[in-house]
Amino acid sequence: MGLLSHLAVFLTAASAVVADPHITSIKFAGSGCPNNPKFSGSFENGCITYSDFVAVQPGYNSTLNCQAQIQAAGANPGWQVALKSNTVKGHAVLSPGASLDYYTTVFFSQDAANTNSLKGTLSNTGSSTLNQDVTLYAEANGGQVWSPCTGSDGYTGILVINFRAALNGDGKARFEADTEEWDLEWRRC
Q: Which InterPro entries match (predicted)?
């Protein structure tokens, strides 16, 4: 079998995954999303637009989170899905010595003990205030948490994606999340 034949088989197998899985339910919870955020996009490439995700230090809300609980159906039987990456765009103001830790925790509610947390840090080690738009990216890098195997109904389970931001250090800091986007990946089971 030649290279083009292998590529055709691969593309056919990959496209067989998605019989257009669609979100049947999405719910939000957490201190960072007291008003339901707006959702756009698809199950595989979703986007959450926040209106009230603002962490401030010093203050009562130096740590915030927003958890999305997503149910989907319509995938072909015999596949599993997992979070591949998560990207949050926003704005950070960090005085010298302040930092922003950010976490994305993902699991399927059917097996909540099987969890993966992705972590990153943005620190201001300079001598002047950092005041800029930021993109916070986290990738599973082999630590994916996979859904149950889809059956004849194409149900993927309840995917839970929890984004949390925590401001640290002695200085003043502020972080405002504008959007959160994710990418999913599939495998045979």
A: DUF4360 (IPR025649)
